[in-house]
């Protein structure tokens, strides 16, 4: 029996990937997801700009890793495909890049297989697994990625769905333990200490409509820094989304309640 229940095809509760799809303006969701997304965004108007800034951060981070020579990426919590997915960004910079996407929603994986198509020189694969099932993720990823060479581990807006009691810090450590030195962690996480009342209310609304295993927990900067213990944190450190190596046309907005960072495994 699967220790981590997978979503049902006809849901009665909201799922993170489909709610995120609503916020990105997509169409791949159910009424229960639409309701959760709209009510949560009503309580916290920074959600939609945060989601878009998070996608922009992912792109900047992947481009940085590709420039640093990383040619393998493990993206846990893929989400329903939208513009500038990990493999698109990576393979624009390095056509031979390999990417493995992981998500626990079969709907997400169906879309991924259809839409996340690798270029001819690279490779893309898909794993249906829960983020908490570390061994299943790494065993499946190793069919496409060489874990003895550096990997970019993408934990972008996913760890909030792992409860404190399930120890998301240990999950992150165990994922990194099997990756080669020179691997990187790309992390973003909703903040509990930026626009705190609005974040708390939007999370409460979302959690009331989500399955128990998909409820969300925002965390403070100090709690987010724990994910990076033992790693070399790249400048500018743990910052809000628009502060991580912005481009010339990017506008800083410290009201967006998400922390992010990129760190290297020695």
Distinctive features:
266 residues; eight-stranded mixed beta sheet; 9 helices
Give the low-confidence spans. Answer: none
Helix- and strand-based class? alpha/beta
Strand portion: 15-25%
Question: What's the number of helices?
Answer: 9
Helix content: 25-40%
Give the rounded overall mean pLDDT: 89
How far the N terminus sits from the C terminus, by CA atoms, comes to 37 Å
GO molecular function, one term: methyltransferase activity
InterPro entries: SAM-dependent_MTases_sf, SAM_dep_MeTrfase_SAV2177_type
Protein name: SAM-dependent methyltransferase
GO biological process, one term: methylation
Task: Characterize the structure shown.
It is a single chain. By secondary structure, the chain is α/β, with parallel strands linked by helices. Helix content is 37%, strand content 15%. Helix 5 links the parallel strand 2 (98-103) and strand 3. Helix 1 (16-23) packs across helix 2 (31-43), helix 2 packs antiparallel against helix 8 (196-209) and helix 3 packs parallel to helix 4. The radius of gyration is 17 Å and the shape is globular. InterPro entries: SAM-dependent_MTases_sf, SAM_dep_MeTrfase_SAV2177_type. It comes from Streptomyces mutomycini.
Could you give a quick summary of the protein structure above?
It contains nine helices and eight strands. It is of the alpha/beta class. The model has no long low-confidence stretch (mean pLDDT 89).
């Amino acid at each position: 029996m699967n220790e981590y229940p997978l979503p049902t095809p006809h849901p009665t509760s909201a799922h993170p990937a489909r709610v995120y799809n609503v916020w990105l303006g997509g169409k791949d969701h159910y009424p229960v997801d639409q309701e959760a997304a709209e009510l949560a965004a009503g309580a916290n108007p920074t959600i939609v700009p945060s989601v878009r800034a998070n996608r922009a951060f992912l792109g900047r981070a992947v481009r940085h890793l590709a420039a640093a020579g990383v040619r393998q990426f493990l993206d846990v919590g893929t989400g329903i495909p939208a513009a500038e997915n990990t493999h698109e960004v990576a393979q624009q910079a390095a056509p031979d890049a390999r990417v493995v996407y992981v998500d626990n929603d079969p709907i997400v994986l169906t879309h991924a297989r259809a839409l996340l198509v690798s270029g001819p020189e690279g490779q893309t694969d898909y794993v249906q697994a829960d983020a908490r099932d570390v061994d299943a993720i790494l065993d499946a990823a190793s069919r496409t990625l060489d874990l003895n060479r550096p990997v970019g581990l993408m934990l972008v807006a996913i760890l909030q769905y792992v409860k404190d009691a399930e120890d998301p810090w240990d999950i992150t450590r165990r994922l990194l333990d099997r990756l080669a030195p020179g691997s990187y962690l790309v992390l973003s996480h909703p903040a509990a200490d930026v626009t705190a009342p609005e974040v708390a209310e939007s999370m409460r609304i979302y959690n009331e409509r989500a399955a128990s295993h998909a409820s969300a927990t925002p965390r403070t900067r100090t709690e987010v820094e724990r994910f990076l213990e033992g790693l070399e944190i790249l400048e500018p450190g743990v910052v809000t989304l628009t502060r991580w190596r912005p481009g010339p046309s990017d506008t800083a907005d410290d009201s967006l309640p998400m922390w992010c960072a990129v760190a290297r495994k020695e």
